[in-house]
Specification:
This protein has 206 residues and is of the alpha/beta class. The chain has eight helices and eight strands; from the N terminus they run H-E-H-E-H-E-H-E-H-E-E-E-H-E-H-H. It binds iron/sulfur cluster (SF4).
Length: 206
């Protein structure tokens, strides 16, 4: 769940001193998805990019570790924290084990975050690397496609090193961020986070 208290506590940025945000590169339009696309277009990302009081630092950990195009890595038997703790692994649709590559990718993402002294990470949900709310459990291409609540490996690496994350589909949380970036932004009170959606509540029985 996104830490809204943290978002509310963010400083008021200026053009000269913008909030530094690490972002999944695909959300900013880079063609780094597994199939060489940017994984679609997301309104929250487009809106974020319009602000001049944010400095966006794009990074794609999977492209760094495996190149593009590539097979799709997903956590199996646990989430990204479990992978980092050696209790779960990363598999692709062909059964390839990419656990070590993804751990290396997460460490590189952490390094980029530290080098840029980021204050937040804006991440693509559902990715075995960048997911921060919901990810797949096992390959998303398996006959028994299954979701789990949890973070991907890179989000988990950032999280355990004190870097807060927000998903592109946590609309209520992103509204708080927009209000920080632009004091004139009127918060949409009807916006909800992903864990408040009907699908999430039904699927996970919450
Ligand atoms: S690893 Fe992250 S940045 Fe790269 S394509 Fe997947 S979601 Fe986007």
């Amino acid at each position: 769940m996104t830490d809204k208290d943290y978002l509310n506590s963010l400083r008021i940025p200026t053009k000269e001193d913008p909030i530094r945000v690490l972002s999944s590169a695909c959300l900013l339009g880079e063609l780094c998805g597994v199939d060489g696309t940017s994984n679609g277009v997301y309104q929250s990302a487009l809106q974020l990019m319009k602000h001049d009081t944010v400095k966006l630092v794009p990074f794609c950990p999977e492209d760094f570790a495996m190149g593009t195009p590539r097979e799709t890595p997903d956590c199996e038997g646990g989430d990204g924290h479990d992978v980092l703790d050696g209790k779960a692994r990363v598999v692709t649709q062909s059964g390839k084990d990419l656990t070590q590559e993804m751990i290396a990718a997460s460490l590189k993402m952490l390094q980029v975050a530290k080098e840029n002294d980021v204050e937040l990470a804006f991440l693509m949900d559902a990715s075995g690397a960048c997911g921060s709310q919901v990810i797949y459990n096992g390959s998303r291409f398996s006959d028994t496609k299954e979701y789990q609540i949890g973070m991907g490996i890179c989000a988990a690496q950032l999280d355990r090193n004190g870097i807060k994350t927000v998903s592109q589909r946590d609309f209520a949380a992103v509204e708080i961020l927009f209000a920080k970036l632009n004091p004139n932004h009127q918060i949409n009170q009807e916006a909800i986070d992903y864990d408040q959606t009907e699908w999430y509540r039904e699927y996970f029985g919450k």
